[in-house]
Design a protein that fits this description.
nucleus, 2 domains, single chain, metal-binding, HAT C-terminal dimerisation domain-containing protein, mainly alpha, RNaseH-like_sf, 17 helices, 362 residues
Length: 362
């Protein structure tokens, strides 16, 4: 504006042709040559108003009156600051709960961002739920199947060790689409299996003495040969000799009644002994040879049929004429339990029977 720039100036001189008290609230405007401009400025509201000597001053007079009335009005209404700056009074109980924040209508970071303790507690709860889920899977898949079969006390179990160890290791194989926690869990479980399992040649020989897993498909040819040699050494160690040398050996292919079939695919929750052993054997038995070989070679190359309803000891009893020395070894070796669970159960039961309070007469 020209007034602020110093090009114009104001003066309190009122025009002689228009006297009035309202001019005390108005300033006339003139330029540097003392020539009055057709404008005046109100000292109350600082507003620039148009004015010409030729025109009447009623509008100027009315403006000054209105400004004076506004200034003299009493301030009956309270400012909004009185409400925004007012401090709300709350009880100590409300301040300790989330309802105190709601009553003050005040935003809080505690409402928007959860506490670190709550985050940690939530993560821990999720981890515990996932751990319980994995334990449930292991309980159903491993404990109820593998543990119960390996600790059975009414049937042979030593020949099941290698097939089940192989099955458990297959379960622990890491897949590409597994979650990071599943991969870590499988690696820990596989490490635990490798550390806790103690395998000897007794397990190899007992697996070889079962007609389903006798081909030892998971072993190399060199390892198979070593197992056959270990079987011969055990026959000599136990002084198991073939007594009836004059009995005509019956060909191992006499009872071949069924062609070789591909084993049926197991259901996810069905893990019977036969299924686990068939998976270990891969159903790939070699053809028998017509050359005269020792009993172990003939047994290893023979195609044999095993009924699911027939136990391994019953099978060896039936085939004892064909394999007399191996049948004796099988009866001796397969009678060894795979774990100490059976003996511990018997010991516990016997201990309860022979305890002191049961020996007292009444």
């Amino acid at each position: 504006m020209n007034i602020k720039a110093g090009q114009l100036q104001t003066t309190e001189d009122s025009p002689s042709s228009s006297p009035g008290e309202f001019w005390s609230s108005l300033l006339r405007i003139k330029d540097s040559d003392d020539v009055y401009e057709p404008f005046v400025q109100c000292t109350i509201c600082q507003q620039i108003l148009s004015y010409d000597v030729k025109n009447k001053t009623n509008s100027l007079k009315l403006h000054v009156q209105n400004c004076t009335i506004k200034i003299n009005l009493p301030k009956s209404a309270m400012s909004i600051d009185c409400y925004t700056n007012k401090i709300a009074t709350l009880s100590s109980d409300d301040k300790r709960t989330k309802y105190g924040l709601m009553k003050t209508i005040k935003s809080s970071a505690d409402i928007l961002i959860p506490d670190r303790t709550n985050i940690s507690r939530t993560i821990k709860q999720i981890a515990n739920e996932y751990r319980l889920k994995m334990n449930e899977i292991l309980r159903k898949e491993l404990k109820q199947k593998a543990s119960e079969q390996l600790s059975a006390d009414q049937e042979p179990t030593l020949h099941l060790v290698l097939p089940w160890i192989n099955k458990l290791k297959i379960f622990c194989q890491i897949k590409a689409d597994d979650l990071a926690v599943i991969k870590q869990f499988k690696s820990i479980l596989l490490k635990f299996i490798n550390e806790k399992t103690w395998l000897t040649q007794l397990h190899d020989i007992s697996t070889f003495l079962h007609p389903i897993t006798k081909n030892l498909s998971f072993y190399s040819q060199y390892e198979k040969s070593n197992i056959h040699k270990a079987t011969r050494r055990m026959l000599k160690t136990l002084n198991i000799l073939e007594e009836n040398q004059e009995i005509q050996q019956i060909g191992p292919n006499i009872n071949i009644a069924k062609p070789k079939k591909k084993p049926k695919k197991m259901r996810k929750d069905d893990y019977s002994q036969e299924d686990v052993m068939l998976e270990f054997a891969l159903a790939s038995q070699d053809d028998s040879s017509e050359d005269d070989e020792d009993e172990i070679e003939r047994y290893a190359k023979a195609k044999l049929v095993v009924s699911n309803e027939e136990s391994v000891l019953q099978w060896w009893k039936k085939w004892s004429i064909n394999y007399p020395t191996l049948s004796v070894l099988a009866k001796s070796l397969l009678g060894i339990p795979a774990s100490s669970c059976t003996s511990e159960r018997i010991f516990s039961v016997t201990g309860r029977i022979l305890e002191q309070r049961r020996q007292k007469l009444r």
